[in-house]
Structure of Fructose-bisphosphate aldolase:
Amino acid sequence: MIVTTKKLFEAAYGKYAIGAYNINNLEQCMGLFRGNLESQAPFIIQISKGARKYTDKRMLEAIIRAADEIFPDAIFAVHLDHGDEETCMDAIESGFYSSVMIDASHEDFETNIAITRRVVEAAHARGIVVEAELGQLGGVEEHVSVDESNAKLTDPDNAKEFVERTGCDSLAVAIGTSHGAFKFTGNQTLRFDVLAEIQKRLPGFPLVMHGSSSVPQEEVERINRAGGNLKGAKGVDENQFRRAAELGVTKVNIDTDGRLVWTRVHREYFRDHPEEIDMRPIGKIFMAEYAKFIAHKNEKLGSAGRLPEVRALLGK
């Protein structure tokens, strides 16, 4: 059942975070639904601008609609990830998304507010909720590319003003994470001090962590042993998710880790089965491995086992 992120955040705030997982194809979608139902967790499906262009946005939307029928017990939101104004407006008009993210964080403060406000007005008129971003994460994710030297943490005072003036429903904050597989080069960690200050100024308001893949070293090592070259890849400590949730983070974006699972499964399979040309055996392996990965992440986020209480809250 598709719901808005607002409903999910009301259930989660201060207790746990909802996993927001990017998908691009059928195998990811099936593994995602299976993993969330196995762990009894509500979740958010994220569709990026790049995913909408990968084949045709209608194809990915149709796969999700089919999954909603196949897995009627699932409770989830469908979210546009890192949309520009044009893409947000298209997603709003489609009537399919329950949530959109407008990312104008690369603009100056006033321009970011103006763009976000326009998207909020259009979305709210359709009953769709809006995530916005303030501050800039470093790293690369599809069309979003920010040099680490230009990354900026979210200013707590600006965050309060931004939310009040835009009317957005949740805010993606920059607290030390970054996009991609190479998030940290040393002993950097999340800036919980900044997060705590933002929560003080925005009590009860849902916050979002982007760039939160943990880049498991076992996955990296297995990929490299199977012919990959991911030297130095390092991510966010997943054991810090629960502390972030206590400080108002209700949504944690995870994309890179899913790509690592996909890469590891395919590299190892074709290394061990060089004669194979059938895509279905490897697809089955990936779906099972991805489901296992999703269930594990939900345990770390604290969302595992929460589906019954969310269903009760929704009166379903």
Q: What stands out?
A: Confidence is low (pLDDT under 50) at residues 143-150, 179-187. The first helix runs from residue 5 to 12.
